[in-house]
Amino acid sequence: MVTTVALNDGTAIPQLGFGTYLIPAEQTGIIVGKAIEAGYRHIDTAQMYGNEEGVGQAIAASGIERKDFYVTSKLNNGNHQADDVRRTFDETLTKLGLEYLDLFLIHWPLPMLYGGDFVSTWKALVGLLTDGRLRTAGVSNFEPAHLERIIDETGVVPAVNQIEAHPYFANDGARQASLSHGIVVEAWSPLGQGAVLSDPEIAKVAADHEKSVSQIILRWHVQRGDVVFPKTTRPERMDENLQVFDFSLTADQMRAIDALDRGEVGRVGPHPNDFDYVPIG
Ligand code: NDP
Questions:
Q1: Is this model's pTM higher than 0.85 or not?
Q2: For ligand 1, which residues put their CB under 6 angstroms from it?
Q3: What range does the domain containing 116 cover?
């Protein structure tokens, strides 16, 4: 049974979902369909992933009621201007075949683009909350200074900050800044895109619990209070990754995994202050 986490806007989010980064568009309907069969109801996609249609097809084909799903998408880097926020949000809903989206995020702050004006982007995204088609507004890859700025200049605190976090990169700066503002942390690449799965210390903890390394890592995230959505294309791993709510790590085991943090060298993705990729078209 997946637990839920309360958000600062009065809504709640399932603590574990299904990630869809790098799932090819033409396979997404089938793979997300398998994830739904396995029991996933929270799905994380993005305009940038090019697979929103497949996510929508899988949801429609499941026959499960809309209200039982929690669907997140993210604003693409080329869409930060206010008109593009509104226009592409409409496109996202159309591609997903949904009347409302649970959570929409600014995917990257892009402080070096758009004259550094991610505040206007945030205002436009918050503006989507007014007509019922968006339930919750959040950000992704926002560093502490980015959070301070949007909060100071708009007075609106994001409900979530989706940031890279896993045992090799705890990302304490962005994580603690988020938590101090009452923002729930979503940990992207919770398995370090696979890098953490061969860790010998976590293997020892896994042996103690008769669980897999992946299950121990996901349990560590859950016990920290963060939201996760591991990605896998394999049904047996979809099942495995869901089974993390029937055991607990001890305080010593949590500390042993905390101690694996490598700081900046542990990152698997780009630093948000440097990332300026804008897809063509
Ligand atoms: P993950 O940390 O979820 O790792 C995925 C990798 O781990 C895949 O290679 C997968 O392989 C493997 N894997 C998954 N489960 C298991 C298991 N039980 N045993 C062994 N191997 C396993 O990486 P992601 O980068 O996909 O992150 C998760 C999600 O976070 C994304 O899909 C996306 O939704 C989101 N994200 C958001 C970003 C942002 O900027 N906001 C950036 C990156 C990710 P296989 O498929 O072969 O099983």
A1: yes
A2: 19-21, 44, 107, 140-141, 162, 188-194, 197, 214, 229-234, 237, 240-241, 269
A3: 4-264
